[in-house]
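User: Hi! I have a protein structure encoded as tokens and I'd like to know what sequence might fold into it. I'm fairly new to this, so please keep things simple.
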């Protein structure tokens, strides 16, 4: 008996160390794959385009055509007062140097503007445009050659810009590549500061931060595995969002677990036993909430947009890796470190926390006095804010997608101003080779077309380059695009190019909203019904998060143009922000409603149960909301407008959800509905009998208050 007792006492001590050893093995296994994630990250146009759109078919066929590896650029020489003879000589010399030193397809001829201020040279190279490294090297080499020396008498006032599809792709690639480091470091710094403020401990804040870092490393390895096994798209946007979710959602789970662990340490002597009880109490809510987020994000697989469809699996991977780490590695570290990890506010065994009226207790009391009034006022406020969505600027144009203007965008703007009589961005048409001649004739006959020329050809496909009379991405050019597609559809031809891509993005996002939104709502509702054993409470939570989404877009509409100066809204903002806010908002709702349901099961009436749930979980939810909002707010410091817009809307939505919807509206609705909130479950009917006396190791959630 003595040996058996000693074995039982030692076994709990061995479990945390075994988990730590298991995690070391997992990281050793995932390490080689995590380091390769950057190698499979792609930020080409086809990686963000709709899978079935005309413009996507054009981009894919262009890569397979002879010369499809060509990198196309436009050199733009400009002087406000008009180009001088020396300027033209400089341009000719530089183009000659490029033709001599780099692999140009042919010696280009300059095209002067009518006002004499601008000279344009179209340049093409046989360097593979589909190989990002070779393309970027060629573009940077061209820029090194053509940038005029500053401060000389001959070149002072002359600007030289490198534009075209190759330069734009290089600039976009550099921006996406630059996201990884700053995004990770800024996220870690923000989470670290908030954890220090929340815990007021020199050591405790470091534990969840380290665990989140481990989870992020694991998620990178899993994401690489998904790419290799299933061809999942990995882009700079999706990998960045995955990092945000790992640190944001992972820290949220850590806050809930650590809060419950601290409570149990006051009642349970041994840290191991306290952690087991804490996980038994809050584990179901954490698992359910993370499962809801993952399920909501996986619904993006139904999207036709490549970037959205790829973000779903990567986001789900981030959340699930954060869950596994926080449910295993975090408890193991906390148990090994013992009570001293909380120093200087160590929760001593047998001690009682200081009795003081919390902010959330006061908020619950105010909501409890007039729940219907509070509910109505909150609904009116959210509805009024949602009206601001009508002020959102139109669709984001390609030249407006960077927060700071890169060289390629500046070149596009100079060309548009200097050549108003012609399009400066060709429309690409891909026609079957046996129908190329009639397709070319049809293209030339379309109103709004300035010129059309036959380009590269293979046995199956022929490329036709069309120049519109209107400026790129204008209403007139859009009309020309639509007429081209109507005329050439019978020829089996596809119409693409940058302007067509933007048009397809807008149309596809509208389609994805109609398809994905109902799937997300159905999936989340099903999970909530199973978890809460009711229908009214899940519908209440879903209605609340949809209202938060609308209000967040409304606030965005009030600030994007007037405050941030954005010229447009990313077409994918509505769908992505909806998926994230619904999934993450319900996440917090689960924490609150799950605790309220447990209080009701313990014998409490719905009203007192709602107030108790708010009092006990409000602080943790507020801390978690602040952390999650801050991590998404990191995106507002990124150089891409679409990331800034997404980060702003989600951060605002999380704050609204945390401090208005969860605290006031959901609590007020629960107080107003009473037992009906649990309809048609058993809690909505007869009051439960007296709760049995809890066993010493029974979770606190099921103890009668």
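Assistant: Happy to help. Inverse folding works backwards from shape to sequence: for each of the 705 positions I chose a residue that suits the local structure. Here it is:
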């Amino acid at each position: 008996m003595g040996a058996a007792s000693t074995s039982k006492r030692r076994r709990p001590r061995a479990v945390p160390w075994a988990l730590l050893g298991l995690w070391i093995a997992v990281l050793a296994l995932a390490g080689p794959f995590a380091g390769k994630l950057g190698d499979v990250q792609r930020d080409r146009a086809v990686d963000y385009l709709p899978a079935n759109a005309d413009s996507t078919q054009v981009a894919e066929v262009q890569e397979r055509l002879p010369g499809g590896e060509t990198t196309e650029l436009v050199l733009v020489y400009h002087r406000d007062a008009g180009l001088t003879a020396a300027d033209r000589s400089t341009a000719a010399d530089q183009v000659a140097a490029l033709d001599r030193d780099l692999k140009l397809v042919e010696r280009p001829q300059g095209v002067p503007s009518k006002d004499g201020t601008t000279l344009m040279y179209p340049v093409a190279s046989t360097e593979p445009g589909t190989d990002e490294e070779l393309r970027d090297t060629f573009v940077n080499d061209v820029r090194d050659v053509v940038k005029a020396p500053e401060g000389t008498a001959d070149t002072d006032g002359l600007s030289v810009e490198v534009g075209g599809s190759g330069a734009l792709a290089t600039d976009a690639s550099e921006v996406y590549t630059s996201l990884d480091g700053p995004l990770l470091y800024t996220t870690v710094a923000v989470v670290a500061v908030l954890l220090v403020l929340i815990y007021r401990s020199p050591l405790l804040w470091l534990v969840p931060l380290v665990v989140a870092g481990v989870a992020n490393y694991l998620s990178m390895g899993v994401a690489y595995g998904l790419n290799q096994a299933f061809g999942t798209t990995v882009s700079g946007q999706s990998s960045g969002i995955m990092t945000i979710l790992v640190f944001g959602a992972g820290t949220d789970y850590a806050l809930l677990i650590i809060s419950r662990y601290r409570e149990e340490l006051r009642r349970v002597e041994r840290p191991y036993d306290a952690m087991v009880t804490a996980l038994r109490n809050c584990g179901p809510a954490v698992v359910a909430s993370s499962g809801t987020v993952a399920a909501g994000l996986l619904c993006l697989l139904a999207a036709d947009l490549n970037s959205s469809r790829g973000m779903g699996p990567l986001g789900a991977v981030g959340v699930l890796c954060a869950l596994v780490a926080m449910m295993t590695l975090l408890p193991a570290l906390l148990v090994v470190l013992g009570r001293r990890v909380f120093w200087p506010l160590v929760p001593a065994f047998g001690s009682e926390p200081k009795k003081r009226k919390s902010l959330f207790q006061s908020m619950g009391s105010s909501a409890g006095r007039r729940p219907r009034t509070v509910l109505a006022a909150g609904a009116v406020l959210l509805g009024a804010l949602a009206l601001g969505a009508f002020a959102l600027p139109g669709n984001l144009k390609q030249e407006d997608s960077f927060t700071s203007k890169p060289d390629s965008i500046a070149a596009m703007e100079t060309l548009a101003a200097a050549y108003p009589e012609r399009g400066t961005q060709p429309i690409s048409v891909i026609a079957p080779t046996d129908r190329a001649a009639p397709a070319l004739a049809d293209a030339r006959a379309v109103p709004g077309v300035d010129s059309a020329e036959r380009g590269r050809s293979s046995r199956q496909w022929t490329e036709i380059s069309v120049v519109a009379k209107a400026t790129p991405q204008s209403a007139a050019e859009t009309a020309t695009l639509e007429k081209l597609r109507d005329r050439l559809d019978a020829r089996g031809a596809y119409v693409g190019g940058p302007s067509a891509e933007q048009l397809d993005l807008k149309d596809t996002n509208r389609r994805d909203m109609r398809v994905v939104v109902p799937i997300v709502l159905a999936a989340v509702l099903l999970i909530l019904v199973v978890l809460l054993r009711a229908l009214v409470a899940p519908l209440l939570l879903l209605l609340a998060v949809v209202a938060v989404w609308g209000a967040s877009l409304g606030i965005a509409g009030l600030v994007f143009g007037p405050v941030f100066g954005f010229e447009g809204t990313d077409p994918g903002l509505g769908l992505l922000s909806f998926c994230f806010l619904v999934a993450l908002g319900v996440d917090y709702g689960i924490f609150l409603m799950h605790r309220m349901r447990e209080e009701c099961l313990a014998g409490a009436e719905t009203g007192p149960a709602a107030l108790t749930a708010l009092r006990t979980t409000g602080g943790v939810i507020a801390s978690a909301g602040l952390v999650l909002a801050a991590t998404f707010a990191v995106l507002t410091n990124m150089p891409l407008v679409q990331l800034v817009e997404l980060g702003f809307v989600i951060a605002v939505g999380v704050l609204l959800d945390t401090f208005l919807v969860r605290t006031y509206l959901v609590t007020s609705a629960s107080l107003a509905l009473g037992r009906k909130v649990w309809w048609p479950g058993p809690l909505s009917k007869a009051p439960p009998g007296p709760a049995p006396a809890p066993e010493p190791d029974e979770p606190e959630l099921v103890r009668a208050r």
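A useful reference point when you look it over: Confidence is low (pLDDT under 50) at residues 1-9, 688-705. Feel free to ask if any position seems puzzling.
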